[in-house]
């Protein structure tokens, strides 16, 4: 390898290589990418790695490499590093904070000691921080709250102490947060409730005290919550029962008291619970997660009852003190309630008599209005919107009759006494996360048919020809699929790219394919690169300016399912012009 003076990309991962890494692997300082993960390399880091000042991406995880991470690995890649699963030791350097473009730092399952550097808060593009299963001590730096791009923080299985800094609550994009198996104390910050995208939260096996913040119930995306083996007290917040995505809940080995909130009766997504070793009492919620729970998950509480293994049945009779209270309530309230109902009946009867005289005249007007109602609406969308807003009082919650995953349904009575159901969709939230609720029109129609309708779709996703043909068919959905597929690949709406593809000059033809991908994620390797390239080609073919030249969804499905050929070029050299046919076969 001494003769490879122009080596840029070296990938040795997922093999059974043994022995030592080549000592002169970076003698010339040219490598940009060095990947040797999932092998059996052992011994120290090559000394020549210190010369690799241009390193962009390093993956040496899951080997048996040894040495002091601060001395033997004195390099700081610009984008991605994973050294997990080796036998390295030493302390983390403050120089990691100088890597302002670093997106992923993974150094877990090692013997790393010392404190987490405060300077790490200066690596503002960091998306993944995994320092789990080490020997780190000291406090969690509040400076981590500056890392607004963080998606994952994994600091579990260390010896961290102090409190959880409230500044962490500013990391609104977090999906995974684990501080389990440490020596953290104090209360759980209420600011954590701001994490609306969080999927997994694990604070177990610490010495946290105080109560569980009710703001935790605001994490509507949370799937797993574990605060077991702490010193938490108080009642279980009823807001936890309203978490619609929660699947696993572990509150065991604390000092929680009171009864389990009735709000858990609607927790249909909950599949696994553990509330053992607390001071809870009263009936368990009437859902499968509690009924199918093991004895170990419910044991050692003050007095739980209900339909579960190991629990006694709840009493069917009403206690005497509750019965007496109910009798006093009836004696005081019932007479006044009957009197009020009598007065209301008289008022209603008088109103009916008066309204009957007016109704005959109104019926004629209503009949005429009903006859032309939807004909007028078809030509005046603004009037439709204003009528609905006025009748629904700005979509007041009292008119809401149902809530779904993508919107709410309201019962609205229009001026012509026409009662309609109006669905208010949430297609494009602030994070610009598109939903597919208006891209399935074509599958409701016959395969070769088309529909004429008013333009009612999501701008930015609908086919270009809809603006002048108003004709909805399968090719419209194919175009929308292409836009959505590119949005997932790019991490943003591809509006600028589509506009450039439409341009006769095609100004983005020299763009590298890797620069088009979501910059928050690490670049794909091996088989994933082929899949990404295939998806980009298919998505762009769906954007053909001529609808008849677009593939069908069946053809798209077949292309996505076929095996992809090996790439002849590296992802670092593939240009967008190689994906797009400049002769006009795409957009």
UniProtKB/TrEMBL annotation:
- List residues of the Protein kinase domain: 201-567
Q: What is its main location?
A: membrane
Residues bound to ATP are 424
Cell location = Membrane
Keywords (alphabetical) are:
ATP-binding, Glycoprotein, Kinase, Leucine-rich repeat, Membrane, Nucleotide-binding, Phosphoprotein, Receptor, Repeat, Serine/threonine-protein kinase, Signal, Transferase, Transmembrane, Transmembrane helix
Give the record's GO CC terms.
membrane
Q: Which residues cross the membrane?
A: 329-355
| Reactions mediated catalytically | L-threonyl-[protein] + ATP = O-phospho-L-threonyl-[protein] + ADP + H(+); L-seryl-[protein] + ATP = O-phospho-L-seryl-[protein] + ADP + H(+)
Which GO terms of the molecular function aspect are on file? ATP binding; protein serine/threonine kinase activity
Q: Supply the Gene3D superfamilies for this chain.
A: Ribonuclease Inhibitor, Transferase(Phosphotransferase) domain 1
Query: Which EC numbers characterise this protein's activity in its record?
Result: 2.7.11.1
Topology relative to the lipid bilayer, per the entry, is: Single-pass type I membrane protein
- In Swiss-Prot or TrEMBL terms, this protein is called non-specific serine/threonine protein kinase
Q: Organism, per UniProt?
A: Quercus suber (Cork oak)
